[in-house]
Amino acid sequence: MQPIIFDPIYMPRIWGGRQLEETYHRPLPDPTSPYGEAWEVVDREDTQSIVSSGTFSGKSLNHLWNHHREEIFGKDFPDFDRFPLLIKILDCADDLSIQVHPPTDVAEKLGGEPKTEMWYIADCKPAAKLYVGLKQGVTKESFDQAIQEGSVANQVHAITPEKGQSIFIESGRLHAIGAGFLIHEIQQNSDTTYRVFDWNRTDAEGKPRDLHVKQSLACIDFQDTKPEMDNPDGNTLATCPYFTTTLHHLKAGETISNPNHDRFSLITVVEGSLENQHTTGDTILLPISAAPLVATENTTLLQITIPSSKHPK
Q1: In angstroms, rounded to a whole number, what is the distance separating the alpha carbons of residues 141 and 290?
Q2: Tens digit of pLDDT for each residue in 223-242?
Q3: With contact defined as beta carbons under 8 Å apart, do 185 and 266 qualify?
Q4: Pairwise CA distance, residues 101 & 173, whole Å
Q5: Coil/strand/helix, residue 249
Q6: Is the CB of residue 267 less than 8 Å from the CB of residue 286?
Q7: Residue 112 CA, distance from chain mean position
Q8: Cα dihedral sign for 61, 66, 72, 75?
Q9: Same fold yes or no, 4-219 and 236-305
Q10: Mean pLDDT, the chain, integer
Q11: Distance, CA of 307 to CA of 117 (rounded, Å)
Q12: Alpha helices for 10-139 (secondary structure H)
């Protein structure tokens, strides 16, 4: 079976830019709008990845997952009706809001979906900052007071990462991406985000964006202080019950295949290219019976797999 490619879905965002066009040479839907997200692999009720060519051309990811699961993906996956991951590229030209995603137990109470994710820094401007976790000594009470005063930025821990680093964002971890990043994001299939602070910004009409203060305070892990960028375990960047992400550097002619021949993987080309015109930025679904992918030059890849159903959901 041939590798499967989906048409990207582009999302305009007020904090977005044009790097998807400038860096990845992609034609964007509008010639001037800021696009903050490319949804590369998604199976949501209102947003579907569609296969761009080949045997399954025109079919949705949801169709593949529910009608060709063993043929394409393999066996022993969590019994979800929808493909359980969402893969994005983020172009952050401006600061994103400070936000949190709900842990499983809290999500159920709030009517949202839990969301654990990770970020891989594909590129960043000098001194660009990630805001992750809290400064030492911050309490729920001091944080709540800072919300009222508009000074939440003083409570959040800042990191200055480098290109090629990564960080795991477990649900409940307060976070924001600062201006100047191009990031590959691997996450649970969820779109629940609670904004707690938006840098006191207003829109063209002078109105602030909606915040979700009560929900955020219920979700934030106030024991999460001064985290740093992750240290890889060999080539493993992140592993959790929902996904495992590994980093690979290939020379021209070297190959990559599924780590388990009975289970699929997703391959994201961070830099470089593969045979059959798979180029920088592409995410490829490698079915269980697919041949290895061959690098045509020095190439950096992320490989994403899903643990079997014996792991917790």
Answers
A1: 54
A2: 999 999 999 999 999 999 99
A3: no
A4: 7
A5: strand
A6: yes
A7: 18
A8: positive
A9: yes
A10: 95
A11: 15
A12: 19-22, 61-67, 104-110
Give residue 310's pLDDT: 55
Helix%, strand%, coil% for the chain, nearest 5: 15, 35, 50
Angle at 220 between CA 218 and CA 224, to 5 degrees: 150
* Domain residue spans of the chain: 4-219, 236-305
Which 3 state secondary structure label does DSSP give 67?
helix
Catalytic residue, chosen from 195, 201, 209, 263, is: 195
CATH assignment, 236-305: 2.60.120.10
38 C-beta neighbours (distance < 10 Å), count: 23
Q: Is 201 a catalytic residue?
A: no
Distance (Å) of CA 137 to CA 134, 149, 155, 224, 225: 8, 18, 9, 11, 8
pLDDT tens digits, 273-297: 999 999 999 999 999 989 999 999 9
DSSP, collapsed to helix, strand or coil, labels residue 106 as helix
The pLDDT > 70 percentage for the chain reads: 98
Q: Which two tokens stand for residue 41?
A: 């692999």
C-beta of residue 124 within 8 angstroms of C-beta of residue 180:
yes
Return the closest-CA partner of residue 88 out of 198, 200, 11. 11
| Token digits of residue 196 | 């707690």
Tokens standing for residue 280: 């920088």
Q: Pull the structure tokens for residue 238.
A: 């992140």
- For domain 4-219, say whether CATH 2.130.10.10 is its number: no
List, as own/partner pairs, every contact residues 279-283 make where C-beta atoms lie below 8 angstroms and the sequence separation is at least 24, other chains included: 280/23, 280/24, 281/20, 281/23, 281/24, 281/26, 281/38, 281/89, 282/5, 283/5, 283/6, 283/40, 283/41, 283/87
Dist CA 79 CA 262 (whole Å): 17
